[in-house]
Write a structure and sequence with these properties.
Largest sheet: 7 strands, mixed
Strand content: 15-25%
Low-confidence stretches: none
Distance between the termini: 18 Å
Number of strands: 7
Shape: elongated
Length: about 210
C-alpha cells in the first residue's frame, strides 16, 4: 500500500460479534453499521435465496447512507435449512427447545448470504455459502441447560460452533467460518469480482 493509495474503508452491515471477530482475525478492521432491515418482511422461495436476499438488503441499506460514501460494505445473513425450511433465530426458549429436539441426530445446511457493495462504483457482488452441519444427540437435560444459557436465542439455527453448543455438533462439511457467520474465502472471491484484493484491506500489523 502506498501513500497515494490509502486503504479502503470497510463497513460491516451487521451487529454480529462473531462476524466482526472473524474479519479482525483475518487482518481486516471493519467499522460496524447496523442496517435495521426488518428481516420478517423479506421472503424468498428457498432458505439459500432468503439468506442471500437478506444479505443484499442489509448491504444496500447501509451502502445508501451518505456517511459510508466510498467504502466497501459487507452484508451477511444466515439461516439453517432443515427439510427445506429456513430457520433463523428462535423467537423464545420454547421454540429453541423444540428446534434442538428436532435437529438432534440429524443434519442441516447452514446457508449464509454474502453481499459486498462498492459504494465508490455502485457495483456489488453476492453469493451464498453452504455448510452441512451434523448435529449430535444431546439429552433433554443438556438441551434445557443450553436453552437456559440464553445463547441459542441470539444465533441463526439456535446453535453456533464457537459457543456452548459446540459439544453438541458432531461435525461439518464445508467452511466452519460460514457457520460462525461469514465465509472469508467467499468474501475474498466477491471482493475480487469487484476488482479489490483482500490484502489491500489488511490493517497495519501491530508493533
Amino acid at each position: 500500500m502506498t501513500d497515494q493509495q490509502p486503504r479502503r474503508r470497510l463497513v460491516l452491515a451487521s451487529q454480529s460479534p462473531a462476524r466482526l471477530g472473524l474479519l479482525r482475525q483475518a487482518g481486516l478492521a471493519p467499522e460496524v453499521l447496523v442496517s435495521g432491515v426488518d428481516e420478517e418482511a423479506v421472503s424468498a422461495p428457498t432458505p439459500a435465496e432468503l439468506a442471500l436476499a437478506l444479505a443484499k438488503a442489509k448491504a444496500s441499506v447501509v451502502a445508501a447512507r451518505p456517511e459510508v460514501s466510498g467504502a466497501l460494505v459487507i452484508g451477511c445473513d444466515s439461516v439453517l435449512d432443515l427439510d427445506g425450511r429456513p430457520l433463523g433465530k428462535p423467537a423464545d426458549a420454547e421454540e429453541a427447545t423444540a428446534r434442538w429436539k428436532a435437529m438432534r441426530g440429524r443434519a442441516g445446511t447452514l446457508q449464509t448470504g454474502h453481499c459486498v457493495w462498492d459504494t465508490a462504483t455502485g457495483r456489488h457482488a453476492a453469493a451464498t455459502a453452504s455448510t452441512v452441519v451434523r448435529f449430535g444427540e444431546p439429552t433433554d437435560e443438556e438441551i434445557a441447560a443450553y436453552v437456559a444459557s440464553g445463547e441459542p436465542l441470539h444465533v441463526a439455527g439456535a446453535f453456533t460452533l464457537d459457543g456452548r453448543s459446540a459439544p453438541f455438533i458432531d461435525g461439518i462439511e464445508g467452511d466452519h467460518g460460514n457457520v460462525i457467520g461469514i465465509s472469508l474465502p467467499l468474501v475474498r472471491r466477491l471482493l475480487n469480482e469487484l476488482g479489490v484484493g483482500i490484502t489491500e484491506l489488511w490493517a497495519p500489523a501491530a508493533d
